[in-house]
Amino acid sequence: MVSKLLVILVMCAVTLTMGCTAYQRVMSGGTETEVLPPGQKLMTAAWRGDTLWVLTRPLHEGDVLETYEFHELVNFDKAQGKVIIKEVR
């Protein structure tokens, strides 16, 4: 009986963990790295619910590739989650 209950609890925990999106994990203190499609320059990023929206444009000749770190701040002093966005040629 106890072993069956343990198996059920483990299965529920695995299902719940797999059901979280990467951004939900970020919002609870995790880190996620995203690489933009090749040749795209990041203009801005914004959250809407648990979705991260990014505005990009094509890379121009002479643009420098950059890596951006977006941090969630709680009470303006403690960093929680972090999203890293990288540009590639």
Task: Give the SSE map.
Elements: H1 2-19, H2 22-27, E1 31-35, E2 40-48, E3 51-58, E4 67-74, E5 78-86
Parallel strand pairs: 1-5
Antiparallel strand pairs: 2-3, 4-5
Keywords:
two-stranded antiparallel ribbon, 27% helix, single chain, alpha+beta, 5 strands, 89 residues, extended
Number of strands: 5
Oligomeric grouping of the chains = single chain
Mean pLDDT: 78
Q: How much helical structure, as a percent, in the residues?
A: 25-40%
* CA distance, first residue to last residue: 57 Å
Number of domains: 1
Query: How do the strands line up in the largest sheet?
Result: 1-5-4
Order of helices and strands: HHEEEEE
Low-confidence stretches: 12-19
Q: What gyration radius follows from the Cα positions, in whole Å?
A: 18 Å
Choose one word for the global shape: extended
Largest sheet: 3 strands, mixed
Please work out how many helical segments DSSP would assign.
2
* Proportion of residues in β-strands: 35-45%
Query: Structural class of the secondary structure composition?
Result: alpha+beta
Description:
By secondary structure, the chain is α+β, with helices and mostly antiparallel strands. 27% of the residues lie in helices and 44% in strands. The protein is built from 2 helices and 5 strands. It has a 3-stranded mixed beta sheet with strand order 1-5-4. Strands 2-3 form a two-stranded antiparallel sheet.
